[in-house]
């Protein structure tokens, strides 16, 4: 099922940022080009595996935008974008996030107490962003029904599971200076 995702991961360029081997991929970076067949495949896999008995889909700017829009369109479930910009709307919640290579503020709007939500994102590495998002959703009184992330790298998934939440990832990878190695994926035809 994830033929395009597997192939594009295997051929993803690697750049060095300090001591960090950063992979460049259409799902996580939007470059060089996001092909519709790749996005369609990823969203179809999310539809097949995610708990869609929710009121809202929650995703994180920037690369969560195409995922959220496509999944919302396919399921008719509204989506919320956690933004990098403050809007100062009533009830806005600041989300302080720290990742393996950045930190900053994000802002959550549009969540009501009792909303059942599905969180989706492009990558989980350290889990820093996801922890911050979970904390903000809990503060807003949302019920987190499921978390689905396209690409798993590092121990971030484990750190979220230690908080009591399951995280489904479509593909698990490791990255070194030689490239991306696929360690597993949600479908049976991974390798």
Write a structural description.
With 191 residues, this protein is an alpha/beta fold. It has a single domain, classed as 3-Layer(aba) Sandwich (Rossmann fold). The chain is 30% helix and 34% strand. The protein is built from 6 helices and 10 strands, in the order H-E-E-H-H-E-H-E-E-E-E-H-E-H-E-E. It has helices at 3-10, 26-29, 36-49, 64-75, 128-140, 156-161, and strands at residues 14-17, 20-23, 56-60, 79-82, 93-98, 103-108, 116-124, 143-153, 168-176, 179-185. It has a 6-stranded mixed β-sheet, sandwiched between helices. Helix 3 packs across helix 4. The longest helix is centred in the N-terminal third of the chain and has 14 residues, at 36-49. The relative contact order is 0.18. The model has no long low-confidence stretch (mean pLDDT 93). InterPro entries: HGPRTase-like, PRibTrfase_dom, PRTase-like, Pur/Pyrimidine_PRTase. It is found in: Cytoplasm. It catalyses: IMP + diphosphate = hypoxanthine + 5-phospho-alpha-D-ribose 1-diphosphate; GMP + diphosphate = guanine + 5-phospho-alpha-D-ribose 1-diphosphate. Pathway: Purine metabolism; IMP biosynthesis via salvage pathway; IMP from hypoxanthine: step 1/1. Its EC number is 2.4.2.8.
